Each structure stands twice: as C-alpha cells, then as structure tokens.
Amino acid sequence: MEAVPPLARAYAACAALAALACLLPLPGLPVPWWAVLALAAVAAACDGLVRRHGAGPFYPVLLAAAFLLPPPAAALVPLPGALLARAGARPEALRRIWRAAQLALAGWAAARVHGDLGGRDAVVGRDFPYALLPAAAAVTAFCLVLTVLDGGIRRLAAGSRPGGRPRGAAVRHARCGRFARSLAPIAVHGLGGLMMAVLWRSRYGPVGALLVLLPMCVSWWVYAQYHRERAAHRATVRALVQAVDLKDGYTRGHSERVGRASVLIARELGLDDERVETLRFAGILHDVGKLGVPTRLLRKDGPLTPEERRVIELHPEYGHEMVRGISFLGEARSAILHHHERLDGSGYPYGLCGAQIPECARVVAVADAFDAMTSTRSYRRARPVGAALDELERCAGTQFDPRMVAALVRALDRYGWHPAVTADENTPNTPKNPNTPNTPKNPNTPTNPAPVPESPGPPR
C-alpha cells in the first residue's frame, strides 16, 4: 500500500525537517538528560501499552515533559516511542517519521508557550492557581499543532484523488471540528501531566510523579475496553453490509454512502455524537432486510407482479427482525423498519404519516433517496447533485420531512458530495435503453425510497 501521494510525502518530509530544527539546543538552557531519558522511556512504555490494547493516544507524559523541560528536550521525549512503535499500515517508515515529527513539533510548541508564560517557575514553586494558566495555554498549543498538521496531510491526501479536493470552507470547518473534539481529552491529559510535573519537582521526586500514571492507566484500560466494544460493533455492521452487497450487487456501496449522508444531516440538525453514530448505523443497515428477500426477485429483469412487489416491500420488517436483538443499534432499528414511510401516509410497511414516523427514519429516507438519485448504476446515469436536491425539495412535505431536506442542502453546500458508481466497474456511459434514461432494470424493485410517482425518480 505504497499509495501515499507525492505532496503528502513532501509535507511529511517538511514536518520532519522542522522537527529536527526544533531539537537544536537553545543557548543558556541546560538539558537535564537523565530526566529526558526517564520521561522518554516512560512515554514509550505507555504508548506501547495503549496501542496493544487498542486505545487512543496517551499524552500525559509528553505534556509533563513540556511542563518540566526546555523546548528542544521536550521535543526529544516522544521520539523513541514514535519511531519504535508499529505503524499499523504501509509505508511503515514514513508513518513512523510522520508521527514522530507531529509529536516533536507539538511538544516543542507546548514547552515554548509554557516557558514563555513563566510556567516552569510556577511548577517549581507549586504556585496555584497561576500554574494552571500557562499549562492551559501549552495544552491548547499542543492540540492546535496536532490538528493543523493532521488537517494538512488529510487535505493533501484527499486532493490527490480525482474529485477529492474539499472546498476551503469545508476544510476550515473540519479542522475547527477536529480541534474542538480533541481539546477536551487532551486537556484531561494535560491535568495529569501537570500533576506529574508538580510531583516531580516536589520532595516526592520522579517516583511520586510516576504514581500519577497508575489511575490514568487504569482509566485508559477501561476506555480501551470500550474502544474494543465499539470496534466489535463496527465489525458486526460491516459484516451485515457486505452480505447485502453480495446479494444485491446493483446497490454496492450504496449503504455506506447513505450512512455518510445521514451523518451530514444529523450533524446539521445539531444532534449529539451518540445519536449521530446511531444514525450512521441506521443509514448503513437500512437495507439489511434484503437478505430475507429471494435473490431472484432482487435481480429479476422486467416488472414485478403485485405479489412479488408485496414480498419485496417486506424487507424493512425483515431487517427489523434481523437486528432486533442487537442492543447497541438503539433507535437505528426503528429507522430500518420505517425508512420507506412517507409523510403523507402513502409509504410502507405501516403507512405512518407525519410525526408518527420516527425522526431517525425521516433522516435515513432523505439520505437514501438522495444517494439513489446521485449514484450511477449499470442501468442509468446519475442525476446531478443540484437536480437531486431540487427533487427532494419538491417532494418535501409530502414524501420527505422538510427539515431533513433543508439540513441536507445546508450540509452539502458546506461539504460538497462526490457521487460514485455503485454497480459494475465498466458502467456504460449511456443507459442500456436510451429512451428510458431513468428507468431501472427492475423498475418495481423498492431498493430506495422514490420521489412521488409523477416524477422520474430513483428506483423504488
């Protein structure tokens, strides 16, 4: 997987050179090498431990180094752990160097801000609450450097793919979102690092400082178990989606994109992170009930009989039964059951109308229809995003919830959308029947919620 774009490689190389420059000693600032070696060893051990248990990054030791050491020495502390740890993906050497450069630059910036604000004197004198102010500024600088560097390489990696370069507003919004989400956990690490630094400078010395790590390691172990459980949830969802894709190849990739569009709508509505994740699962699994529908009906050429249509329209109920016992899905189960309901009561399986339809189902219905219209299938061309949004707005109030449609419009204006081919790789440039450009191979198959019948919409 040596597919790192040249610009991203150059960006990582520049970061590595900047990190090397940060290691140059500052005149008049002696380096306590024994403290550097001790903190580097502890940081490497902690990093290996949390990686082995699948938890996220562990920064208290690095931030303690920023509070205790001069900037060049603080930049040295993360290098052994970052350079020796397993990268987890190729190219390993480049990823290790990139990670080491990130942490070295962040540690240098945090130590520089902390020192310029007189933080090291406050730590030595245990001057509270003043010691909290430079520590908070240092934590903010640490988080900001990590966010900016990470956002830059993500943008370069995305921009190397055709149609992958995000717009400036989207990049700025994504960076602000990542910074806001990262600051709180790093601030907790900063408190642990400050406690380590204060104890290190106290009469208890380094041994007392290391005792601070015990409760933090225990809490991180608990978090690792939660992280593993979430990973198991995602694996369960992936397995179900892969089974659906294998059975109904004409919508391959559709479920993942519906999950992505559902997340865009949910975030635009201001839902909390837990509900956003639930709606992502709902979007991904909305068609899982197809596993209970005979394959011959999903792939049948020509129109379905009324009886065959009734069988296919049972797929939301099949899906609900399949996931009934998966407790972590929560309200996603009701979205799977009701995503084909319509606001005017003409949908299925129960003909619910208006507020009777669960909110999560109304989100998935809009995401489902949007992706159906903007995806190229082997039997028809995709509609432009603007045309699909116009169709959704036209059907708002009768088929779709206007609030969900408006949220999707705002989200796409901010982030954009990149439709993808969802059937065969060699999809022709023109539909198989040029006289019916929007007619699916099986026009009666209700694979997606369609706009009202009087308009040419996505397949049913």
TrEMBL record:
Its EC number is 3.1.4.-. Residues 420-460 are annotated as: Disordered. Keywords: Hydrolase, Membrane, Transmembrane, Transmembrane helix. The chain crosses the membrane at residues 7-26, 32-50, 57-77, 128-149, 182-200, 206-224. The keyword Kinase does not apply. Residues 229-424 form the HD-GYP domain. GO terms for molecular function: hydrolase activity. Residues 426-445 have a biased composition (Low complexity). Residues 251-373 form the HD domain. Pfam families: HD_5 (PF13487). This is HD-GYP domain-containing protein. It comes from Streptomyces andamanensis. Residues 446-460 have a biased composition (Pro residues).
